Amino acid sequence: MNEKRPENPTLDQLREVCQPPEVRSRKNAEHWTAELYLRHISIYLTALLVRTPISANGVTGLMILSGWCMSMALLIPGVWGPLLAVVLSQVQLYFDCSDGEVARWRSSQSPRGIFIDMVGHHTTEALIPIALGYRVFNELADDPTSAGQAWPTLFMAACLSVLLLLNRSQSLMVHAARGMAGLGKLPDTAAARAVPTTTLIGRLRSLARFLPFHKLLHAVELSLIILFCSIISAMLGVLGVAEKWLIWILLPACVLVNAGHFLSNMASSRLKA
Asked: In sequence order, which residues have a C-beta less than 8 Å from that of residue 246 and are 6 or more positions away?
């Protein structure tokens, strides 16, 4: 039986229930900006949402819509499209925090909510490179000197979309494999994901902490990089040129990230019975 919550909770009451230490200390489920500012601000959004009839899954729907709109914003030429995408990426983050907070306040956590949340993140990160590729395609196709690069760049953007999905899915594959093998759920801690530093893979992973390129492959970070590239293109007076090089650089880099992620999973104790 669910505990009866007050209809007009205070911020302290919300923080106690919606932001317990076990939530804020999660290593991988929390974005790096969570402690910096996200959780400090999202509680105000949650305070408004719990006073409305909207469900936690409804808030997740708003998160998904924000992510999709972020990708569509990249189709707006010039700097304004990427700038709007950055703003929408922040909106998505706040809804992403608040959907779980609303679910905890109303004791309505469910596998369905987790599933919808995962669909939102996967589709958002898949759409970003496709939208970016189409943005560059339009710019290159209009320039006779670079028209021959338009279709290859769009194809590379589609490949990048697949690789981003694969990289995000690898972590879920580990959980699925453990579940199918009858093993318990892994705690969201660094120790549970550690690779022995005595192995080559472990040493390489330790070095990767000093150059965490894989963290740039998420929606928020990608939107910031795309905005930076659009500013460079505008300064050069050649629209799409920096974004084109971004796609060409990210594709092989993402291949290496996926390979490293795979080897790290195989070398860790997570997949051992």
From this structure: 132, 225, 226, 229
**172 phi/psi in degrees, rounded to 5:** -70, -30
pLDDT digits (tens, 9 = 90+) for 171-207: 889 888 888 888 888 766 555 555 555 555 555 555 5
In the chain, DSSP finds a helix count (H) and a strand count (E) of 10, 0
Please answer whether residues 262 and 170 qualify as being in contact, where contact means their C-beta atoms are separated by less than 8 angstroms.
yes
What's the distance, CA 71 to chain centroid? 13
Fold of 11-271: Four Helix Bundle (Hemerythrin (Met), subunit A) (1.20.120)
In this structure, are residues 271 and 178 in contact, taking their beta carbons and an 8 Å threshold?
Answer: yes
User: How many whole angstroms separate alpha carbon 6 and alpha carbon 263?
Assistant: 49
The model carries a pTM of 0.85
Q: How far apart are the first and last CA of the chain?
A: 36
Q: Give the three-class secondary structure for 167.
A: helix
Closest CA to 258 of 137, 173, 139, 144: 173
Instruction: With residue 90 as reference, give the H or E element that holds it.
Output: helix 80-105
Distance CA 95, CA 201 (A): 36
**pLDDT computed for residue 145 by the predictor:** 76
